[in-house]
Amino acid sequence: MSQEKKKQFSLTLLMRVLLGVLVVVAIGIFANSVMRYNELLEQQRELEAQLADYQEMKEELQEILNSEDDYEKIVKIAKEQLGLYFPDEEIFYNDRNE
Questions:
Q1: How far apart are CA 70 and CA 93, in angstroms?
Q2: What's the CA dihedral at 70, 71, 73, 75 to 10 degrees?
Q3: Residue 7: which pLDDT band, with cuts at 50, 70 and 90?
Q4: Distance CA 24, CA 32 (A)
Q5: For a tag on the chain, would you pick the N or C end, based on fewer CB atoms within 10 A?
Q6: What is the pTM of this model?
């Protein structure tokens, strides 16, 4: 009978250890999932902000396209907002940090 109790005790101990390991692994997986979820939420916020900026830019450009403004104003907006230039235009950049 004492041998059965030893087997039962070691089996119970083994089950407790396995259950403990399972709990630790489950907590680790849960923590990893929560961190990934938070990263994805932050990325979603950033992308939504970019989308709002692009929509505003699109509306401004659509207004310009639909208006009958003079040529100079259209060229100025294209250069400032879109970074567009004429093919024969020379452009100089200043990369010095002040």
A1: 28
A2: 170
A3: low
A4: 12
A5: C
A6: 0.51
**Of 69, 17, 31, which Cα lies nearest the Cα of 61?**
69
CA distance 12 to 18: 10
d(CA 31, CA 27): 6
Triad 75, 78, 83: Cα angle to 5°: 130
8 A C-beta contact, residue 84 and residue 78: yes
pLDDT, one tens digit per residue, over 83-98 is 888 888 877 777 777 5
DSSP 56-78: HHHHHHHHHHHS---HHHHHHHH
